[in-house]
Amino acid sequence: PFFVDFRRPELLVSNTISLHLTTEPGVTVGIWHTVPGSRGAEAQGKDQRWYEEALADAHPVIIYLHGNGGTRAASHRVQFLKMMGAADFHILALDYRGYGDSSGHPTESGFTTDVLALYDWAKARSGNSSIVFWGHSLGTGIATNAVRKLQEERGVQADAVVLESPYTNIREAAANIPLTKIYRQFPGFEYLILDSLARAGMFFRSDENVKVLGCPLLILHAEDDGVVPPKLGRKLYETAREAYKDKSKVKFVTFLEKLGLGHDYISFHPELPALVKDFLNVK
């Protein structure tokens, strides 16, 4: 939806509230918080304080980092909130600086600041609940940047990371875009975006980041992804698996071409929640 009232997420997804978080002086980001479906009945009409307190209810928390283009209100992102909310996860979906109703200007380091500010906010409220970083497309590089910084600068290991339709780094993603397909679907858009990110000094080097991570890492890729080829997801998996001491912590799952999930629609696969819960050892 092009025109969306971010303050009223309930028009698109139930059990959801909108909030704003100041991530550094002068930058405020918009966030939607969806609570687990099992708490849906009691969530009706509740305020932000109730939602914040709900974070400590022992259900796992997903920090959802969306891909490029659009906002947290895009249909496939709303589907993610519905699917994972129904599976009894909390989801915190933010629009980075310069996106949606968030202020500020997009930069790679700025995105990391936004994500870690949200992590700190969630960690302060979530008790012993696990917090999972979930990145899709562009968001996969944002996720690995944040998790690496958390580990290297604070000595904190993330509970888990899920990378959906990931690339190795922006340069390689831009070089691998099948131009004919892109021009047919949206003329030059994704290619130009990736190219301009690289020119703007944004690199999102997930292939370097995963070499130093130690947390559980799940990589998801559809065989028919026409934007980021699955060979990049596999390459990222192989890089991580080679570097990890405990190989069992790294998993790669592909979705068959016949499912037609492409780049954006893995969140429509009905078995996704069970697959993720199994990986996280969540009941």
Automatic annotation (TrEMBL):
Record protein name field: Abhydrolase domain-containing protein 12B
Domain AB hydrolase-1: 60-150
Keywords on record: Hydrolase
InterPro entries in the record: AB_hydrolase_1, AB_hydrolase_fold
Any Pfam family matching the protein: Abhydrolase_1
GO molecular function: monoacylglycerol lipase activity; phosphatidylcholine lysophospholipase activity
Keyword RNA-binding: no
GO cellular component: endoplasmic reticulum membrane
The organism's place on the tree of life at top rank: Eukaryota
